[in-house]
């Protein structure tokens, strides 16, 4: 993977909004694994220097995604341990490390889903917002266990439509609503289960815009709000203040009018005090 | 206006979602005024009987709209007072009554806007949801007074786009957001001003779905939430339990998927305890 190919991969990675934070982190590891094997280097030292630089480029491309930061950090920590190895051996070992970390991330998601399914049990109506691979794994765990779903369309990209199709494949009866109707339907749910892009040190959560509204409505109507995410989502202090990414306003298909500024912020913060429980690969922590 | 023309007018009235509750009430009075002049009748008694029946038909067409109920009730109360009049005189008097009530309704909206503008004052950033003719009248009152607006697109029909165009004409700087971003932008506002379709006896408000979420976010962020509507919006006890109208799910342009039920409920209820003040044609009542 030469500079040009890497830079193209970074550009794609930077604007990818179809994959969630965990999937993007695994994508980043996949890119680094390929770089380890194929990037230009004549010495192990040169390889390590190039890879360190590329890891930083990938981290900077998605600054608000905690799992990208965390998994790349884990992988980067291995680099120096191969300083004394022969170039070819170092390349192979680093590629294997990337694969191992990808597996670790996938296993963590599976464990979160199993823990959430065990905790929530059968026969429940679950409310969710946006599309989370972890929540999707939870629904797969609950297939055939008399579960129902209430989901939002999730403007502007309507990830809710994708989720609806996936739930239909699992034969899970689903009600699809606009974000505007969150307050009307939340009391029909036994619980809210929602993924996260990042968890902040105080337990607050960064997730798709609208999650905060779901949490406010859930509290008002007495519906417990659970965050389902693996611990790789925990945002390290060293990441600094979170930046809530905005995307191109044209995604909203709003008319362009002089004096009217259209905003398309993708993420909001749900404060910890609105969260009833955090479910990760270890277990369930209630507030 | 013979039966066929009246029935067509009722059908249009029934599905009209471009006009707010007050405008629909005036539309109903306009229809009844025309009926009074042109409907088939050879005696005053026959005229009154026909008009009573038609008033009921119009009321039943929009059962959740308090001003339709209230203004038609006011007009209907006049019918019996003309029982002794000559047919032609009765027709003219009833048409004039309809015009008078339309004027009363319009004047009430203007008075609400003036009261709200006086209360809120200059230099404020106001957050609103959906399109309310009363809130629009308020913005006209505040034109040139350094006011800014934050407004939602208001899915599914995007009345927010219409509002954005109107605000641009008034040179009021406007930020347009999705409903999902309500929680992200509410704290940039000095106050929420919102219209209502109906006010319930306990002070709760029926309005476009999403209003409840705005109120929840406003409370959480310490932004006062004001309802601006004339007293014709007060729902009478005799109207019974409110019915929250739903519309065709196809308006959401969601994919049609087996096992997925798409919902398009137009209204939600904002409980009185989330409302900081009610502004009507008389003045401002704070909670």
Overview of this structure, please?
Two copies of one chain form a homodimer. The mean pLDDT of chain A is 95. The longest helix of chain A is centred in the middle third of the chain and has 34 residues, at 87-120. In chain A, 46% of the residues lie in helices and 14% in strands. In chain A, helix 2 (21-38) runs antiparallel to helix 3 (44-61). In chain A, the strands form two sheets. A seven-stranded mixed beta sheet of chain A has the order 3-2-1-4-7-10-11. Chain A contains nine helices and eleven strands. Chain A is globular. Chain A has two domains: 3-108, Four Helix Bundle (Hemerythrin (Met), subunit A), CATH 1.20.120.420; 119-286, 3-Layer(aba) Sandwich (Rossmann fold). Chain A has 287 residues and is an alpha/beta fold. Chains A and B meet through helix 7, strand 3, helix 8, helix 9 and strand 8 of A and helix 7, strand 3, helix 8, helix 9 and strand 8 of B.
